[in-house]
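[SOLVED] Predicted holo structure with glutathione

Edit: marking solved, answer below. Original request kept for reference. I posted the sequence and ligand SMILES and asked for the 3D complex as structure tokens.
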Amino acid sequence: MTDELHYVRLPNAFGGRAEMVRYCFTLAHKPWKDVLHAREEFASAGERNPYKQFPYLVTSTGEVIPQSMAIMCHAAHGTDVWPTGTRALTHALSVAQGAYDLYQAFGGFAADDLVAKKKFEERRAPQYFGALATYYAERPFAAGTTPSFADCIAREAIAWCVRKNEVAKGLLEASPALGAFVERFDAIPAIATFQARQRAAREADPSV
Ligand SMILES: N[C@@H](CCC(=O)N[C@@H](CS)C(=O)NCC(=O)O)C(=O)O
């Protein structure tokens, strides 16, 4: 049995945190199967995932793995995508955790919470986009010259904020280092193929 990634598909073929994980499987050239759940099924995640959240993975041996970064470790361990050298892994984690925090900072408030939105736009977005820009100006990918799970998190966290927030969009546009990173990541052949498949899915049915 192939690893099964369970998540709630967002409209327009976007997968939220699951998208980071899917990038990671793609980058590591590992197979996986999507198991999509409806929004109404959020409560059902608790039947298998003690955190009661999506995404979670059911491995080929039936083990359930919660938490997106743990799933990425499972997917990428043994490949370059999960660096093993202490320095490379440390560098990767500095970016991975910061990018994850960016995702959380944007995902942690409702669209109509204008106070939280202002705080995100004035403080958190410049803070996290600025740090990521610093790292990607220093090296092509989070761990060095080889793309890793950390770049999957950064790519999706940036894209998700930029898709939905004008300030984040402006920060990306004003950062040559981040813009170049996004181009570099998207040009990786496996990633480009995956993104083309996503675009086709969106065109075929924007409701899924
Ligand atoms: N730290 C978790 C966060 C997962 C998470 O917040 N998932 C959202 C959907 S993308 C969820 O299930 N929210 C419902 C809840 O937390 O009750 C991870 O990285 O996997």
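OP edit: The radius of gyration is 17 Å. Thanks to everyone who chimed in.
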